Every structure is written in structure tokens, then in C-alpha cells.
Amino acid sequence: MHNLLRDARYGLRMLVKNPGFTVVAVLTLALGIGANTAIFSVVNRVLLQPLSYPDPDRLVLLEISSPQGSGPGCSIPIFNAWREQTSVFSAVAAYDPGGPGVNLTGGDRPLQLKGIRASAGYFGVFGVPMAMGRPYTVEEDRPHGPKLAVISYGLWQRQFGADPGIIGRPIELGGEPYVVTGVVGRNFHTESQTDVWLPLQADPNSTDQAFYLFAAARLKPGVTMEQAKAQLAGAAQAFEARFPGQLGKGGSFTAVPLRDEMVAGVRTALLVLLGAVGFVLLIACANVANLLLARATGRRREIALRAALGAGRGRVISQLLTESVLLSLLGGLVGLVVGLIGVRLLLQMNPGDIPRIGPLGGEVGFDWRVLLFVLAASLATGVLFGLIPALNSSRPDLADTLKESGSRSGTGFRQNKARAVLVVSEMALALVLLVGAALLIRTFMSLRSVQPGFDRHNVLTMEMSLTGSHFDTTAAVATLVREAEQRVEAIPGVEALATTCSLPLEPSFGLPFTIEGRPLPPGKRSHGGGNWRTVSTNYFEVFKIALLRGRLFTQRDDGGAQGVVIINKTMADKFWPNADPVGQLLSIGKGVGPEFAEPPRLIVGVVADVKDTGLNRDPGNIMYIPVSQMKDGVTALNNRIIPLTFAIRTHVEPFSVREAVERELRSASGGLPVAHVRSMEQVVSESTARSDFNTMLLTVFAAVALLLAAIGIYGVMAYSVQQRRQEIGVRMALGAAPGAVSRMVVGEGMRLALIGVVLGVAGALALTRAISGFLYGVKAWDPVAFSSVSALLAIVALAATYLPARRATLVDPVIALRNE
């Protein structure tokens, strides 16, 4: 300990004595450590920190599994099976994951709130604390039960002035009175920032197989995940016996940790970004190691004197490593500040769909894990970049070193193998990052060139929640749509208005279908499945989706007419490859539940394909249904789980008519508010936001890596020229032309760069597979990306070696030989 303290004091004096070296090294390390700290802060919040619920490790999401995998989502009968036939859970809850919103009415201006319907078990599963009152009970959560509500602490304060008399008082939601039974505790938060919880009131005898709910459960103490899965597998067998074929071939029930399911969509991307920013830190370490090697040359006499006075090699290495660690700790301290600033900037640019980070990243902070990470990264980098210089400097040739003058090192380019290895490593790491960035940039460009199948320009969208009994019938919704069309289309600048349950590129319902008159495949209950979208008459006009065969919907396709459907080209080509589907009959939703039971629909048209689930995915089967021809039960179900979306095509800038459109829609609906106002340009942009975010970050990291690699090779070549001044002077005195000297220096630098490029290409071929899932329109081994990045790195290396080469040609042979 005494030696360590003495080494630390001496190391601090040496760092203070060389402020230029210290500042450059600390800033280089701070850049690498700060970038890692920023990314790790997000990884820590999303992947490492436990959920904020009591005993979060016992929370699971219940899912349907199949040979192809598993996923969340269930029907009411499946939820009932989980709730009634398992004994491994202390509580099971079902809830709608999105919800259409809830209209707070009764005031001067209606307000759309974020609301979900949840079974009574929700509050036990998630351990919801109550600031006041109580949650609704199992008895109250029955079909036709009382209209009750639990509200959030924030809503209680914002809208009701923290009135303690709110408990037991009715509030108006969707024009109907709901009695408030409880106020949720201040510190309870959900991912969607819920304002109000309403009873699910699911029918225990329901046969409705529509998947629109999520289900979560809490494991009983002592129950393992394996035991829960075994119990669920037994429940699946009982369910299949009651509802044959509903789980599909090989289907079963399973459970996954809730946190794992919440972060499944971002885990790989975050780990890739953490690995990428780790490469930046390694390059920074290589640069600082090169600085230390250069500095060690000037300290050779000092180290030789230490050895001559009896200091062993281990003692010398200990001293040099202590100095390196002190340097890295200073870099870590500055890097912590850089990381704090960086994570704020990072979260300002985030795509908005990263789970667990809260609005604008408000949940991301620095806790003990982040501080421990910074400390560990600082210590590790200190040892990493300090070890090579320490080992290289701890074996001085005492006789030669003590005989040399202080101005000579006696080392040439070939003796600087350690520095050459570091530069090669920098170039290789930089190339890997640059190739990754190039692949994502090419993906970005490919997505921008995709034709989505609809016209996104001059279209304004907004949502309206139709919860409440007033719009439970299809006729009432159809009347609202007609009134909205008449009012909004009279606004100057508006061309047409349409409604839908789901915009292009956003999730929609999936339903099975059967083709009348065609035998079913063996063991199948339907001919296939597809996305099911309810639309109004002007939908295809608003989005300019081309009609290929047949006709579009008209006002005559109402509730009193024969049921009709329009399908997309993909579905027509797949199921009628050599025939015209127009005029064929299609049964949709058969076997899903009584709400969906209806006579077969007549296919009246085929329209062009639309990228319905993402710009990077091929179109699937789509079935368009007139909003005026839905069954009342389906309309009521739709209103409970999704909002009605309006799409307005304009002749002018869309947002210029926003206020007028909102005013007319409120009048048409009887005063209901609209929310989530966006242009279709924004909808398309949001669909690629996460990919764009990853591209931006990896490009920034790659640019930093390229800059650090260029600095590294420049430093090595500049130092080599400085150390070889006498040799270069002799060459020039013997007749070497300046061009030959320049080519010699450039050639040595380019050899290092090309070795790094070759190694980097090999590494990139192996590592870019990690981002193959993020690519579109380009392969992970894309030759254009690899060749262009290799050429760019070679050009940067050439530029970095040019200045030292130019300096070499300016060496005065007389002065160089005089010094010799």
C-alpha cells in the first residue's frame, strides 16, 4: 500500500508536469468512456434495472406458443382458461394493451384520456398501491356490472384539483357516469402512462376467440418458471379439448418473464450499439497507448536509471501502470460528465418507442450500476492502454540508454512494432464500425425509395375515441362518418375525408377467411388469414390506392345491402392465380366468435398492394370491409379497443386546416375530442424511426472511430519521422530525392493501413451478421459497402500520412548530420 501511494503521488506529479499530454489523453479517454456511459445508461434502464413493481421477478406474461415461436395476445376464453385452470399463480389479469382512449366529458371542453380496461386481478398482479379508496373487486368485474373507474394520481391532481372527495363520486366518461373507487399511488407508473382503469367485465362463458387482450400473472412464492410452463401446457390440452383447433397445430400455452417480453424488440439493437461504442473506446485506448509509448521514449533514461539503482521490472511496470490508471480515472471523471450530457442528447433524438425510459427519457438516470460501470471501464482501460507501454518500457538496455544523449532515442520505425500493432488494430476496428454504418445507411436509402402503395402527401390524420354506449351500433358510427364527410369536405382546401380502424403501416386486426365452394386443406379450419381493415367509402380516394379490378365501395354498400369486401393484389394472386376473384364469396372470421359470424361477403374489387405492416416487409393479405356493414357486436368491440381514425386529403398544407377539421369533427360527434393528430408523412417517418435512430448513432460512432484512427496513424507516422530525422538526413545527403523520402514514409504508413483494412474486412464479415435483422435491400456482405468503406479508410490513411511525409522532405541534411 505504501508503494502504491508513493507511485500515485509520483504519477500525479508527472501528469501535472506534462499538461499537454495529460489534456489530450484525458479528452481522448473521456470521449470513449462518455459515449459508453451514455449508451450503458440506456441499457441499464431498459435491460438491467428491475421493473418498478413489487417482486418484479415473479411477473410473467402469458402467451400462445407454437412451433414457430410464441407471442403475446389472447382471447377471453383463453384468459378464462388461464385464470381458472392454473394453480401456480397468485393472480392473473387480462387487459387491453393499447386502448382507444377514454373521453372525459361533462366539462367545458371534453378531454381524451389514456385508459385501459383491465380485469380485477390487474391490481394484484402489478401490486398497484392506492393513494385513496380501493380498486374494483372481482364481483364488480362481471358482465353488466357497475360502471366504475380507478384514476391515476396525476389525473386526480390535474383535472380534479386533488379533491379528497373524489372517492365515490361519479365522473363522466364518454357521456356516461362512472363512480371513482380509487386513486392510484403517486409512484405507480405504466409504460403507457395510463390515466384511468375501467373494469374488463369479461364473460366467463364467452366463446369469442378474437385476440385483443394481453394477460399477465404473478407466480406464487416457491413456484418456478418450469413448473408454471408445465401447468400451462396442461391447461392448453384442456382448452384444445373444449375448443378444437383454436390453438393451431402444435399450439400450447407458455409464460415468459414480463421484462423480457417488454424489451424483446430493442434488446438486440441496444447490445449492438453498446458493442459499437465499445469499439470506439478500444480505439481511444489504442491512441492513448500510442501517446504513452511516445512519452516512454523520452523517459528511457529515467527508467534505465531506476533499473540501474535496483528497481526490478515488476516495480517499474507497477509505477507505469499506476500512472496509466490515474490517467484513465481522470478520463472517466470527465467521461461521466460527457456521458451525462450525451445521454440527454441521445434521448432527445430517440424514436419514442424504446420501452421503460419514460417520456423524453425521463426514467433514465445514473444509479450505482452506471457509476460502477464508469469505474470498471476506467480501471480496465487504464490497464489495457497502459500494459503495452509498461511492458515495452520496462526492459531498457542500460548501457546503450545511459550512453545516449537525451535527444536521441535510438529507435526507428521497425523498432516500433507495438505502435504499429496498435494502429493496425485501430484501422481494423474503425473499418468494422464504418461497414456497419454503411450497411445501415444503405438500408436508410432503400427504405426511402420504397413505394408504399399509397400517396402520403397532403394527408392529415387524427383519432377519436367512440367509447360509450352512444356509438355501440354500426348505424350510429355510419351516421357519424357521413356527417363528418359533409362537414369536413366543405372546408376550403379539403378534398376528401375517410375513416379506418387502422392506418397503413400501423397494426391492424388479423382474421381467418374461407373461400366459398372451395374445399379446405386437410386439417385446416380456413384457407388462410389476412389483415382486416374497416374503411369508409372515400378511403381509396384519400390514399390514392389504385383499383385493379371490379369496383370500389359506394354509399349503397350500407347495412341493408349484401356484404361486400375488397381484397389486395397479393391475396388475389395467391388464392386466385389463374382466375378473377371478383364475384367470389368470402367468409371472414368464421369460428372466431359469435360477434364475427355473418353471411359470406361478395368480393367486388381488387386494389393495388399497400405496405401494410412496414416499409421493409412484403405486403400480406388485406381485406377491406365497409365501416357501414360491420355487425353491431364487432362495432362495439372495435370501439372498446381501438379509436376511429380520420384521414383527410387536402389541396393545401395539411396542418393549415387542422383547427377547422377538429371543430367540424367535434360538431359531428356531439362534442367528442380528437387526439394524436399527425400527417401521413409523420406516420411513415415514425414507421422507420427506430431504424433511423440506430443508423444515426452507429454513423456517429463510426465517424468518431474514423477520426481517432486517422489521428492514430498520423501520430505514429509523425513520431516515426521525428525519430528518424538523422537517418532521413543521411539518405538525403547521399542523394535521395525528396519524392523518394516521401514515398518511403507514405508507403510505411499505408502498409499499416492496408493490413488494418484486410483484418477489418475479415472482422466485419463475421460481425455484421449481428445487424442483419436491421437491414433492408442490402446484404450483410454487401460488396458496395465493403469496397467503399475500405477505399474511404485508405484515403483517410493516405491523408493522415501525407503531412508527416511532407515534413520528412523538409529535413535539412546539414542540421540532421550536425546533430548526429
Short structural summary:
By secondary structure, this protein is of the alpha+beta class. Strands 6, 7, 8, 9, 10 and 11 form a 6-stranded mixed β-sheet that branches. It has a 6-stranded mixed β-barrel with strand order 16-17-22-19-21-20.
Please characterize this protein's 3D structure.
The chain has 820 residues and is α+β, with helices and mostly antiparallel strands. Helix content is 49%, strand content 16%. The chain contains 24 helices and 24 strands. The strands form five sheets. Strands 6, 7, 8, 9, 10 and 11 form a six-stranded mixed sheet that branches. Helix 8 packs parallel to helix 11. The longest helix is centred in the middle third of the chain and has 36 residues.
The amount of beta strand, in percent, is 15-25%
Class of secondary structure makeup: alpha+beta
The helix content is 40-55%
Uncertain residue ranges? 404-415
Tally of helical runs: 24
Shape: elongated
**Rg of Cα set:** 34 Å
Q: Main beta sheet: strand number and arrangement?
A: 6 strands, mixed
Q: Give the tally of β-strands.
A: 24
Mean pLDDT: 87
Distance separating the two termini: 45 Å
